[in-house]
From TrEMBL, chain A:
Any single Pfam family the record assigns to this protein: ABC_tran
GO terms (BP aspect): cytochrome complex assembly
PANTHER family: ABC TRANSPORTER I FAMILY MEMBER 1 (PTHR43499:SF1)
Name of the protein this chain belongs to: Heme exporter protein A
GO molecular function ontology, one term from the record: ATP hydrolysis activity
Natural source organism: Allopseudospirillum japonicum
Domain of life: Bacteria
Residues annotated as domain ABC transporter: 7-216
Keywords on record: ATP-binding, Cytochrome c-type biogenesis, Membrane, Nucleotide-binding, Translocase, Transport
NCBIfam families tied to this protein: ccmA, PRK13538.1
Entries under InterPro entries matching the protein: AAA+_ATPase (IPR003593), ABC_transporter-like_ATP-bd (IPR003439), ABC_transporter-like_CS (IPR017871), ABC_transptr_haem_export_CcmA (IPR005895), P-loop_NTPase (IPR027417)
UniProtKB/TrEMBL annotation, chain B:
Entry-linked PANTHER family: CYTOCHROME C BIOGENESIS B-RELATED (PTHR30070:SF1), HEME EXPORTER PROTEIN B (PTHR30070)
Membrane topology: Multi-pass membrane protein
Protein known as: Heme exporter protein B
One term of GO molecular function: heme transmembrane transporter activity
Compartments, record wording: Cell inner membrane
Pfam families linked to this entry: CcmB
Signal peptide, first to last residue: none
Organism: Allopseudospirillum japonicum
Transmembrane segments: 31-49, 55-76, 109-131, 137-162, 169-191, 203-225
Length: 216, 231
């Protein structure tokens, strides 16, 4: 019996500033899938992720979440979605603990102990109580990424999660992503890294049509 | 499969209030600037016009109100700007909780931290401008009813203009016409009290405007924020 896909995209087109980024995009995301969106800069990777999260209107097409039509801002969808965008949403005046606790209490909740554990795991154990403005770009990004260690969301949408993260950090995150998929969760991410270590990785390349036409 | 246990709305509002409070406390210039502006404008009037009672007393209520209005407006431009830039605004949209409620927590804290000191300071400036003692209570009450309206209406404008690179005078032009009823009823309440006349009518109007704004503004602010983020 075929399973209902977690997320279905049908005939999706996106237009930005009178420029068509992609048309008639269609794919299914099953539970346990890891989908990497590839493509050159400006091919609409971030736009696609924002459309899926309901943060961007789309020109035409249909989205389905667990078989039902998905409308932006639906609480039942949002309660299962973890989205980490370009801007990580970290307040410079707040400490990593305060930043992460806010996120957790807006979603599934977590006690301070679990939050400290997640921050230690992502390598911020020595910076728990310093304001985020004194941390580096990579460390600030790690605060937001620490959410995935606490997350019980079904779908993770991660926009360039590995930007400014060091090699060891990337390996740890890949492991966490893999574990999430093994538990039946799904991940959609964009990255310019080669994610060869991830088992069962699916790849969707945007902007291919443009590349295939050599100087037409 | 994963179980999804979402936190309660009360808990979410609680942490939003705590977060806004911490942010304002750790960024004290956002709090002090409007307050300083309020005091300076009122202080310059006696110096610029005349320090005599005969001239200052009739304009006292107007001066305090205009200064309070402009000080509030000054603090609004940055209300959502930082949240949009650092990505917390889109995260606020992506919580399973209604944005209109979460945003009220933010605006509420903003009012509490900027307007309450302003209201407490108003009688001092009033006294300096020879505002009669019996009008001081009405001045504070009128500001207590009026400033939430100024902030809520201003927040709609701030939410609409947040994604523009430079808002400049746009926010002021949009919002100022809507401030005029508050200014008229606010000053005339204080004026009436200064002449030993009842000010109940004007205060009731301010209360009515506040009730209307309290109901409609959350919807307006959240709709405007969604438009600003989703583009």
């Amino acid at each position: 019996m075929p399973n209902t896909p977690l997320l279905s995209v049908r005939q999706l087109s996106c237009e930005r500033e009178d420029r068509l980024l992609f048309t008639h995009l269609a794919f299914d995301l099953q539970a346990g899938d890891i989908l990497q969106i590839k493509g050159p800069n400006g091919s609409g990777k971030t736009s696609l992720l924002r459309i899926l999260a309901g943060l961007l209107p789309y020109a035409e097409g249909e989205l389905y979440w667990q078989g039902e039509a998905l409308h932006p801002g639906e609480p039942s969808f949002l309660s299962q979605l973890l989205f980490i965008g370009h801007a990580p949403g970290i307040k410079a005046e707040l400490t990593p603990i305060e930043n992460l606790l806010w996120y957790q209490d807006m979603h599934q909740g977590a006690d301070q102990h679990a939050v400290i554990q997640a921050l230690t795991r992502i390598g911020l154990g020595q910076f728990l109580d310093v304001p985020a403005y004194s941390l580096s770009a990579g460390q600030q990004r790690r605060i937001a990424l620490a959410r995935i260690y606490l997350s019980a969301h079904t779908l993770w949408i991660l926009d360039e999660p590995f930007t400014a993260i060091d090699v060891q950090g990337v390996a740890d995150l890949e492991q966490c992503i893999q574990a999430h998929a093994a538990q039946g969760g799904s991940v959609i991410l964009t990255s310019h890294h080669a994610l060869d270590t991830l088992a069962g990785l699916k790849v969707l390349t945007l902007g291919q049509a443009m590349e295939e036409v050599p100087h037409a | 499969m994963h179980k999804t246990n979402t936190t309660s709305l009360a808990q979410a509002v609680g942490v939003c209030i705590r977060r806004e409070f911490l942010l304002l406390v750790r960024r004290p210039s956002d709090l002090l600037n409007p307050l300083l502006f309020f005091a300076l404008v009122s202080l310059l009037f006696p110096l610029g016009i005349s320090p005599t009672e005969a001239i200052l007393q009739p304009v006292a209520s107007g001066v305090v109100w205009v200064a309070a209005l402009l000080a509030t407006l000054l603090s609004l431009d940055s209300l959502f700007r930082q949240d949009l830039l650092d990505g917390s605004l889109e995260q606020l949209l992506l919580t399973p909780h209604p944005l209109s409620v979460l945003v009220m927590a933010k605006v509420g804290v903003h009012w509490l931290m900027t307007a309450i000191p302003l209201i407490l300071m108003a009688p001092v400036l009033g006294a300096m401008l020879y505002l009669p003692t019996q009008a001081q209570g009405v001045l504070m009450l009128a500001l207590l009813l009026g400033t939430p309206v100024l902030i809520l209406v201003g927040a709609i404008g701030a939410a609409l203009t947040v994604s523009l690179r430079k808002t400049g005078v746009l926010l002021t032009l949009m919002v100022l016409p809507l401030y005029i009823p508050v200014l008229i009823f606010g000053t005339s309440a204080v004026h009436a009290a200064a002449q030993d006349l009842p000010a109940d009518g004007q205060l009731a109007f301010l209360g009515a405007i506040l009730s209307l704004t309290l109901v409609l503004a959350p919807l307006g602010i959240s709709a405007a924020l969604k438009v600003s983020v989703r583009q």
